[in-house]
């Protein structure tokens, strides 16, 4: 199953200035924006990770910042960086390090996101040439990318967020399910905009229903759908999950929005809720 709408949406964003690529040299001083070229041993492929630092990053050399890992970085990084920078200046968004995980170009993203954001391998109905690699992609973020970020930037390792839309939202929920199943990774906050939980006949939804709550970890989950998506049944099932224990959950429906409208408000509202802005 292809996602050509991503290429269409890209036309709305390509007017933004893209940072000049640089190598992942850990000795290079941090700048307001940076671009890392990272080869993953887990995925056996290369990724482009765009970094946006908060405006006050250079003001206090002892201060550490929450990190937000954003999926579909080719599409959403520039606009989210702009919004977060502006909102943070007026106290409407937290000051965070934004890391947009992407690919070498939009066509590559449009095909390989199926490989990296899904698990298990797609059933034939979905017509995905490659799929089912979410376990390797999660290992890439946790074992390779995040340690690189910690070495290069002043990160708050206890305040890390994963957020994505559609299949990216599916991967976000997959990462949560893996955390609940005992796989250790660093994410405390999960933001999923219109997650494609219908994938493989609701495989992940059923796995989440069977998940046990963590004994010690305090996790935050924000999920939003558009009212025009007609996901009332799915919304009710998700609402019934994690009603007790150490997961704090918030769910919203954006009444007048459809599937391709929810990502930006969900990302912003989710961050405002999970990491309250400091005026």
Explain how this protein is built.
The chain is of the alpha/beta class. It contains eight helices and eight strands, in the order αβββαβααβαβαβαβα. It has a single domain, classed as Alpha/Beta hydrolase fold, catalytic domain (Rossmann fold). The protein has an eight-stranded mixed β-sheet with strand order 1-2-4-3-5-6-7-8, with helices on both faces. Helix 5 (167-180) runs parallel beside helix 6. Residues 1-5 and 10-27 have low confidence and may be disordered.
Report the total helices: 8
Q: How many strands, which pairing sense, and closed or not: the largest β-sheet?
A: 8 strands, mixed
SSE ordering: HEEEHEHHEHEHEHEH
Q: How many domains?
A: 1
CATH topological fold name: Rossmann fold
Number of strands: 8
Helix share, percent? 25-40%
Strand content: 15-25%
CATH class: Alpha Beta
pLDDT < 50 runs, ≥5 residues: 1-5, 10-27
Average pLDDT rating? 89
Structural category is alpha/beta
Strand order of the largest sheet: 1-2-4-3-5-6-7-8
Radius of gyration: 18 Å
- Give the terminus-to-terminus CA distance: 44 Å
Looking at the overall shape, the CATH architecture is 3-Layer(aba) Sandwich
Shape: globular
* CATH homologous superfamily (4th level) name: Alpha/Beta hydrolase fold, catalytic domain
How would you summarize what this structure contains?
This protein is α/β, with parallel strands linked by helices and 279 residues long. It has eight helices and eight strands, in the order H-E-E-E-H-E-H-H-E-H-E-H-E-H-E-H. The chain has one domain (5-274): Alpha/Beta hydrolase fold, catalytic domain (Rossmann fold).
